[in-house]
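### Sample
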Amino acid sequence: MDSVAIISDIHGNIPALDAVLQDIKRREITRIICLGDLVGKGPGSAEAVDRIKAVCENVVQGNWDLGITSPQDLPAGQWHQEQLGAERLAYLEQLPFSVDVRLSGKLIRLFHASAQSVFHRLKRKASKEERLAVFENTAMTGTPLDGRQPDIIGYGDIHIPYLLTIKSPRQNESTIPACQGLTLFNVGSVGTPYDGNPQACYCIVEGETDSSVPAGLSIQFVRVPYDIELAVRLAYEVEMPDRRRYELEITSGLVHK
């Protein structure tokens, strides 16, 4: 049996990231995949990049990771760019779009926002057509050598954890039933949850290591308490731009415009 921890949307919140990594270590999970948005919002963008590089076997690019590599007009973006420096910005710019994992006979595809772009958002209440579209092989995700489409999709971006199944006809695939259940889940956010629960969130996927054998597979959501007061204090100590909005988000677990 193999366990993979999937984290996303750190957004420079180091106390939250530390708590999640400690929880993963306590569970003796050694495989960690990050679904992007390491930077922005919180004051620890640089440290988040360094920590994620050190502990994750795969890191995919988020919209904030790509966006911060472009010229910044606003003070907050300029501030985060200065904290990151040229080497980390280059690392963020070259991150891959998606990663495929095979467990228990399933193809699991992981990306930040959707199969189209890091900026194309799949909302929690998206239509069935929009949900089915993320299971397609696209120019961004590429196509596996065997031509297979994913059975399970995991993504980040919206900071709201959920899981649902979708009944989808796949009549062009003779090796599986004409109608097969697909699984779609969002891993939530480590640094800035938006579901009303301010505790850090991540997922654990567990299945059989032999990817060719159909077997049981589980997806578990984990909420981890952390020192939110410390996270707020760190933002104010360095006089981070937009620190008040960041404080409101991480203390309430809700998005603030």
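The helical segments are 14-26, 45-55, 63-67, 75-93, 128-133, 228-237, 243-252. This sample (Metallophosphoesterase family protein) is used throughout the tutorial notebook.
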